[in-house]
Amino acid sequence: FVLMLEAQRRGHRLHYAHPRDLYLSGSTPGVKAGPVTVERVRGAHFELGRAADHELDEFDAIFMRKDPPFDIEYYLSTLVLERVDRGRVVLLNDPRGLREFNEKMSALLWPHLMAPTLITADRERIKDFIRQHGRSVIKPLVNAGGDGILLLEKDDRNTRSAIDLLTFRGTRMIEVQAYIEAVEQGDKRIILIDGRAAGAINRVPSKTDIAANMHVGGRAERSELTERDRQICEELGPILVEHGLILVGLDVIGGFLTEVNVTSPTGLQEIARFDGVHLEEAVLDTVERKVEAARNG
Length: 297
What we know:
By secondary structure, the chain is an alpha+beta fold. The protein has three domains: 2-101, Rossmann fold, CATH 3.40.50.20; 116-179, ATP-grasp fold, A domain (Dna Ligase, domain 1, 2-Layer Sandwich); 182-281, D-amino Acid Aminotransferase, Chain A, domain 1 (2-Layer Sandwich), CATH 3.30.470. Helix content is 29%, strand content 27%. The chain has eight helices and 16 strands. Strand 6, helix 2 and strand 7 form a beta-alpha-beta unit. The chain is globular, with a radius of gyration of 20 Å.
């Protein structure tokens, strides 16, 4: 929302569409999209105009900001966006990067920055991991916002049922991660813009939930980057940029990288509230610079 407000403030014309509104006509990517205006008015924060067909290459920039799950429809929408002329249109984030960087699994490109982690559908392998590491967290690989996250103890009587539930009886991969005690002090969200750390907030879980995500009851508080945080950002930043991932949210708990959020990372409004820094301005500066480079390229 704040990205749209800032783009509108700068005089850009905005259009809005769902992924289901994308299409391919032959090899030409298109969308049925309507103009939209936005305001900070509770209950009336947007107004949509009549939707019409547009070729995607008509736009200067396309923001793909759909929340997970990263299901087959999400995957197919990235294949349509793949046909956009990258020499003319800025994509945030790039559809190829969205496909290649699963938000849980991609963090394992840097295993030395993570707590012990396993990706598998094998129920016995999961049980062995929990026996070895004790208290562990199991998570679906394609959800968001803390959905489906469960905490299991070494001798938990619900272990088998929980594993059956999340793996669909051994047919779907999940993530298993050794529990990081520091999560009780918070899960830090670090915003990267074009590969550089731009700000952070700490999300503290409620007393009744292990997930710190704000929409499941987590509380946001002010946070600063530590030397360890900066090390993580400096290591990941260039690779994220290489894959066209302009706006990214890293999740760090107790100095351990846990997720690389690329679909629709949040936290900009909370950072503005605590630090008075409006990161949407930096995002739009980056997009405008890339649009200008594409025009002159």
